[in-house]
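Hi team,

Filling in the usual template for the complex we talked about on Friday. All components are listed, including any nucleic acid strands or ligand strings, so the model treats them as one assembly.

SUBMITTER: L.P.
PURPOSE: interface mapping
COMPONENTS: two
RESIDUES: 528
SEQUENCES:
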Amino acid sequence: MNFSIDVLRNEEKALYSLRQLYMQHGYARYKVSKFEEYDLYAGNKSFLISENILTFTDTNGKLMALKPDVTLSIVKNVRSDVTDTHKVYYNENVYRTSGGTDGFREIMQTGLEYIGRVDDAAVGEVLTLAQKSLAMISDDYILDLSHMGFVTGLLEVAGVNEEDEARLLSLVESKNVSAIRSLCAEYGVSEAHTDALCEITSLYEPLKTALPKIRGFVSGEKMQEAYAQLCALAEILERDGDPSRLYLDFSIVNDMNYYDGIIFRGFINGIPDGILSGGRYDKLLSRMGKRSGAIGFAVYLDMLERLEIAAAGEREE
Amino acid sequence: MKNMINIALPKGRLGEKAYAIFEKAGYECPSIREENRKLIFENPEKGVRYFWVKPSDVVIYVERGAADVGIAGKDIILEYSPNIYELADLGIGKCRMAVACKQDFCDNRERTLRVATKFPHIARTYYNGISREIDIIKLNGSIELAPILGLSDVIVDIVETGKTLLENDLEPRETIVDISARLVANKVAYKFKNQEIRKLCEDVEALLRED
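RESULT (copied from the run log):
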């Protein structure tokens, strides 16, 4: 078969180059069916990006769902041996609502999962692949990194209880420093801890230069562990990735019930929303009764449509 | 080349006040003061481009990245809960979101409370928080009329001085939340135009501290 690469749309080009990238790094294709039993999602709703699920009744009366997410299906089918390492990637369409009330949409998504014994080297590999994935789509990208353990560790040391923790985290997510100050005062958080929380909330810097700045805030086992992990990753990415495009940003927050370690999000200049999202989700596995660790990410290819339009606009200018 | 920052201003008094702050902070754009029907005003030298939009649309422009930063009332942010950064409290446009009703109204918890409001999300969150069953009546203006005509028992609305309420024999009861104007930013723009947006934010905050 002979055809010019120009006939491919942006998202199709990305799809095939990403497939090649993941295969080169030893990830195997994982194919899942278009639907799953609804129960799988009902028990893990907050793991999903949107809680709305498109359901239908199968011929045997079972309630089924069109897949809103691929990770859950993969995790469900993984055997629980700790020794095995599964490296898989997928290209699938998922069905969910996005942004407000405009109904269900079919979203083309690709991504990979690393399930098994997840050490720093594995996390480093996944982060490097996330960077390479973004670089394939555009040179002008940024990968933001955060560590849930660092933020929740700080809140624990500051003596914030669980309910207040969620409220503070949502303020961290919107970098709302003034509201954090008043809420901390209300909860009776000490001044030093309030300052630390505000400081890490407004922090936005390349990982390498950011690390010395947060070092002074580290206290308690959880933060120490998180800090050590971030340092190890900085070293790996320095060697294998592009450290100038790796930023530390604690405003990247994800559901605490599923994510407790590294989380990250990728952005492309010209697309007004994150196009890559991922993190370490050991907690999901333990909730499903499996003992291994896991990290992975998804790339939302439907967003690349916007990039084409943005690029065309720039050429006109 | 320096990145231009796109700034969405809410049409009306609040937006003018906000622009005055930007102007004083060194982000002036003289053409904005001219009387004309233009919608977009830019000053390439200062790296800013302003445009006026309907106040409740500011967060939409910012969330979707058509504007990098914007000025929005806390009421709008709470109502739409957009996925954006809230970088500074400008301390202008101060008022509060409150429950108001006829002066002689006495709440009967045996009945569903009928609430007229422009802010259904805020009203629902508030009444859920105190476990009160309500019936929301979404209106788009002249909210004060609702309790007078018996359309609703109470209203949830913005109260600045309380004068309009008083003139219509209404009175404010519980305050739900204090409101003021916020400097908000698109999350992705904040990353790719980080230096410019941070500088803008710092300059504005420095100016606010002076006053």
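MY TAKE: Chain A touches chain B at residues 140, 142, 144, 174-179, 204, 247, 249, 251, 267, 269, 271-274 (CB under 8 Å). Chain A is about 45% helix and 20% strand.

Thanks, L.
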